[in-house]
Design goal:
Shape: elongated
Radius of gyration: 23 Å
Structural class: alpha/beta
Pfam families: QRPTase_C (PF01729), QRPTase_N (PF02749)
Largest sheet: 6 strands, parallel
EC number: 2.4.2.19
Order of helices and strands: HHEEHEEEHEHEHHEHEHEHEHE
Function: Involved in the catabolism of quinolinic acid (QA).
Domain Quinolinate phosphoribosyl transferase C-terminal: 113-279
Organism: Amphritea pacifica
């Protein structure tokens, strides 16, 4: 169900992307006779984890349903440099018109999946789940969230609507952690309630208020271990999430403190597009 939700806006996302690229028509493609047919192959020029099959398919479906896309890999597959990813057959004009838009989706989402797979490998065996954040490319929220899962990581909340994340300013406006949590549970029963804390006093308040998840913001390693212990001793323990200033150098040691989750904005905001190439064959 969650995956279906992340894929549900593919047609609308592709429509927007094509509109900004095509405008009132591909004037360069018009140099080619309308009846000319062609075949093309897309390869990855580097090692990667692939993501974006649905977006590529939709690009060519919207441009010209006569184009045939033959995939040689699937979302989540690891590929090597120069490995073919898919082949195209159809009107030459349509293949060229769709090329950049299709590859933009594929290179960006594969970049997200690839960095997610790298970070997931760093915590393998610890039991911790790596979470993405809302630091996504505007308009590609669901797409990048899906790519994160293809790389072996997990989604935090999708947006502002499906889970609470109560931060310092929310607490100040509500009057207290207890008031904010109680109001959240009353307003939207059943939706996860998470509280961000920066001290052990705030941790205690969040646990006493029976928050479902407590985000430990910028706690050092010793602080994380102590928070895990205090949580275990509490009559209504929560899930604990480490966040803030985490990178590849610190990730493993943080995972080993015993927290349940680690959230990392790098998964979506710092991804490097995978180098792809399309050639007629």
């Amino acid at each position: 169900m969650a995956t279906n939700r992340l894929l549900s806006d593919i047609p609308a996302t592709v429509t927007t992307a094509l509109a900004e690229d095509l405008g009132d028509g591909d004037i360069t493609a018009q140099l080619i006779p309308a009846e000319q047919q062609a075949s093309a192959r897309v390869i990855s020029r580097e090692e990667a984890v692939i993501c974006g099959v649905g977006w590529v398919n939709e690009v060519f479906r919207q441009i010209d349903n006569r184009v045939r896309v033959n995939w040689l890999v699937s979302d989540g597959d690891r590929v090597t440099a120069n490995q073919p990813l898919f082949e195209l057959q159809g009107p030459a004009r349509s293949l060229l018109t769709g090329e950049r838009c299709a590859l933009n989706f594929l290179q960006t989402l594969s970049g997200t999946a690839t960095i997610s797979a790298y970070y997931a490998s760093l915590v393998e065996g610890t039991g911790v789940k790596l979470l993405d954040t809302r630091k996504t490319i505007p308009g590609l929220r669901n797409a990048q969230k899906y790519a994160v899962t293809c790389g072996g990581c997990y989604n935090h909340r999708i947006g502002l609507y499906d889970a609470f994340l109560i931060k310092e300013n929310h607490i100040m406006a509500c009057g207290s952690v207890a008031s904010a949590v109680a109001t959240a549970k009353r307003n939207e029963p059943g939706k996860p309630v998470e509280v961000e804390v920066e001290s052990f006093t705030e941790l205690q308040e969040a646990l006493d208020a029976q928050a479902d998840i407590v985000m430990l913001d910028n706690f050092d390693h010793a602080g994380l271990r102590l928070a895990v212990q205090k949580n275990k001793e509490h009559p209504t323990p929560a899930k604990l999430e480490a966040s803030g200033g985490i990178d590849a150098n610190t990730l493993r040691s943080i995972a080993e403190t015993g927290v349940d989750y680690i959230s990392i904005g790098l998964l979506t905001k710092d991804c490097k597009a995978v180098d792809l190439s399309m050639r007629f064959i």
